[in-house]
Amino acid sequence: METDDLSRRSLLHAIIATIGAAALPFGWAEIAEASQKPHAASLLAGEARISFLSAAEAADVEAVAAHIIPTDDTPGAREAGVVYFIDRALGSFLSRLATDYRAQLADFQGTFRGHHPGAASFAALPSGEQVEYLETVDRTPFFETTRLLTILGMFSMPAYGGNRNGVGWKLIGFEDRYAFQPPFGYYDREYPGFVNDRAARP
Questions:
Q1: 79 has pLDDT over 70
Q2: What are the pLDDT digits (tens) for 108-159?
Q3: Rg of the chain on CA atoms, in Å
Q4: 13 burial via Cβ count (<10 Å: 0-12, 13-18, 19+)
Q5: Does residue 78 sit within a domain?
Q6: Which residues form the domain of 169?
C-alpha cells in the first residue's frame, strides 16, 4: 500500500510539473469559468461523439494520446476517451486554440506523409513505428499541446468528455465526493439528496 501511495504521488507530481512547464496560451480562465458555471457540466454532458475533428484527425489524435498515457495493466488515454475531451474542448471552452491546433495537426500529418508515403495514416501504423515517429516530433507545438490536452482529458470531470467511468481518478486514487462544510460533515455522506445528485451525474 505504501508503494502504491508513492506511485500515486509521483504521478501527481509529474502531472503538475508537465502542466506548469507547458509554455502555452492555454486558456485557464476559460476552463475555470466552465467549471464554475452551475449548468456547464450538463451542457457538456451527453453521449460521446466527435463533432469538431474529422474522423481521420480524431484517429491520429487518439493514436498520439494513446502513447502519451498508454494502456498497460491499467487503462490509458484510449480507454478514458481522451479524444472526446479534446474534440469537445476545441469546439467549446478551448475554442480559441482550435485554429492553431488544427494547423499544427495538419502539419503533423503532412510531415508524417513525407516520412511514410506508403502509409494510409499515422493511426494505421503499427505501434512500434508510431513510437519511432513520435520521437522525432515530441518537441513540436502539436505534440506539446496534445500532451497537455491528454492529461487534462484523463483527469478532468467525466462530464467534459474524457475520464470515462472515472478511470483517470481511479488511477491516482481520487474519490469523487462532496467537500462538506459546516453545518454538514462526513456523517452526511449518505444523505439521500447527495446520493441522488451523484447518481444523476454522467
A1: yes
A2: 999 999 999 999 999 999 999 999 999 999 999 999 999 999 999 999 888 8
A3: 18
A4: exposed
A5: yes
A6: 49-199
Reduce the secondary structure of the chain to three states and give it as a string.
CHHHHHHHHHHHHHHHHHHHHCCCCCCHHHHHHHHHCCCHHHHHCCCCCCCCCCHHHHHHHHHHHHHHCCCCCCCCCCCCCHHHHHHHHHHCCCHHHHHHHHHHHHHHHHHHHHHCCCCCCCCCCCHHHHHHHHCCCCCCHHHHHHHHHHHHHHHCCHHHCCCHHHHHHHHHCCCCCCCCCCCCCHHHCCCHHHHHHHHCCC
Nearest to 56, CA basis, from 106, 107, 15: 106
In a domain, 141, yes or no: yes
* Amino acid at residue number 173: G
**Single-letter residue type at 159:** A
Cell 478511470: give the residue: 167
Number of domains in the chain: 1
